[in-house]
């Protein structure tokens, strides 16, 4: 089981992710969207959406830094394990809390706004459960195994295992020896990766390059006074008139 979880499951999740993205782009290109529901309700969305997106962005940056920046690099600039632990503890928990509050507000909006709720699919519900579980489990794992003075050094175990996946030589023993909460968090995270192509989160792989060069959009006024029938003109105009 350990070999499957930490030596095979990551590659299975990535294979599903890549295959799903190719399939989605080829056969459901017009569905590659967030399926925005802004036209139904904006008040809560304008608060919850930025909270979620900024929170999840900071969470992602924290994971990239923790998993792919070796401790020797941060030690070389005087940012030792103690300071890194404080940054990870306070910064990570704050980012996670921001994302969780944003998700809960989005769920509340989706459940209490009839039009938005009717547009909710089973994939949406599954996405919310898995995404919220991954973030909460990460926060619980960090708070359980970290304190102000010291914490679990996952950069010498989990991060090394993660980087070993890219060399096709996964160090299974390192992840197998990690605390259970971190292991559960990792499994749910891999499940989220596998689900991404089949949910509205697929839009995170879209680079809005064309947006920078799109033509201006001209809107017609809906003012009834400006939509009134224009005055009738003569069919022929005199030359030089």
TrEMBL record:
Bilayer-spanning residue ranges: 6-23, 44-66, 86-108, 128-148, 174-196
InterPro entries in UniProt: Heme-iron_electron_transfer (IPR051936), NarG-like_domain (IPR023234), NarG-like_sf (IPR036197), Nitrate_red_gam (IPR003816)
Subcellular localization, as worded in the UniProt entry: Cell membrane
Domain NarG-like, residue spans: 3-222
Topology of this chain in the membrane: Multi-pass membrane protein
Presence of the UniProt keyword Cell membrane in the record: yes
This protein's UniProt keywords: Cell membrane, Electron transport, Heme, Iron, Membrane, Metal-binding, Nitrate assimilation, Oxidoreductase, Transmembrane, Transmembrane helix, Transport
Primary location recorded for the protein, binned into one broad class: membrane
PANTHER family: NITRATE REDUCTASE PRIVATE CHAPERONE, REDOX ENZYME MATURATION PROTEIN REMP FAMILY (PTHR30598), RESPIRATORY NITRATE REDUCTASE 1 GAMMA CHAIN (PTHR30598:SF3)
Listed name of the protein: Respiratory nitrate reductase subunit gamma
Organism name: Catenulispora yoronensis
Organism ancestry: Bacteria, Bacillati, Actinomycetota, Actinomycetes, Catenulisporales
């Amino acid at each position: 089981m350990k070999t499957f979880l930490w030596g095979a499951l990551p590659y299975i999740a990535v294979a599903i992710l890549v295959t799903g993205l190719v399939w989605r782009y080829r056969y459901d290109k017009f569905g590659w969207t967030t399926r925005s529901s802004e036209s139904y309700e904006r008040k809560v969305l304008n608060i919850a959406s930025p909270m979620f997106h900024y929170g999840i962005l900071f969470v992602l940056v924290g994971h990239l830094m923790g998993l792919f920046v070796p401790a020797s690099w941060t030690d070389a600039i005087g940012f030792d394990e103690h300071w890194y632990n404080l940054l990870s503890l306070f910064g990570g928990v704050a980012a996670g809390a921001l994302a969780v509050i944003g998700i809960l507000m989005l769920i509340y909006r989706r459940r209490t706004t009839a039009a938005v709720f009717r547009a909710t699919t089973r994939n949406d519900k599954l996405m919310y459960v898995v995404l919220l579980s991954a973030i909460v489990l990460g926060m619980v794992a960090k708070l359980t195994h970290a304190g102000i003075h010291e914490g679990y050094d996952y950069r010498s175990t989990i991060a090394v295992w993660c980087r070993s996946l890219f060399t096709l030589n996964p160090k299974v023993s390192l992840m197998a020896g990690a605390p259970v909460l971190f292991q559960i968090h990792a499994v749910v995270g891999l499940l989220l990766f596998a689900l991404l192509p089949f949910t509205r989160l697929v839009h995170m792989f879209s680079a809005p390059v064309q947006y920078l060069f799109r033509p201006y959009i001209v809107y017609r006024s809906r003012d009834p006074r400006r939509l009134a029938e224009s005055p009738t003109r003569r069919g022929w105009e005199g030359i030089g008139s």
